[in-house]
Amino acid sequence: MSANPEVSTPAACDGVDERLPTGRLATLGLQHVMVMYAGAVAVPLIIGAALGLSKEQIAFLINADLLCCGLITIIQARGLGMFGIKLPVMMGVSFAAVSPMIAIGLDPQLGLPGISAPPFWPVSSVF
């Protein structure tokens, strides 16, 4: 049998499994981190400003968000038992929940004013 020149071999494909040079990997990794970081900081800034939080409270939201994003990224990338996809991904924040969080935060019975208000029923009756 003669070899068919029209059939491509796996080596001639796009190179999905190809390892890029270190400089290019570092540049693309930095770009990925910066995009994730911008999204992770924007959501707490939007929510904090809409709810009228102080700068310290907004800074706390940003720190909590970055901590959670980092922990979940490690769990997803490295795996933790049966959790994690074990792929090089970065987990970030979704903008889909911004409007509901602002609506809940501004509702006087649910949000920030509702936290400091007296409860509607005695705590002892719940248990």
UniProtKB/TrEMBL annotation:
CC terms in the record's Gene Ontology section: plasma membrane
Positions of transmembrane segments: 34-52, 87-106
Domain of life of the source: Eukaryota
Chief location bin: membrane
Localization per record: Membrane
Pfam families: Xan_ur_permease
Membrane topology, as annotated: Multi-pass membrane protein
Keyword set includes Transmembrane helix: yes
One MF annotation (Gene Ontology) recorded for this entry: xanthine transmembrane transporter activity
Record keywords: Membrane, Transmembrane, Transmembrane helix, Transport
UniProt keyword Transmembrane helix present: yes
Family: Belongs to the nucleobase:cation symporter-2 (NCS2) (TC 2.A.40) family.
Designated name of the protein: Purine permease
Organism name: Panagrolaimus superbus
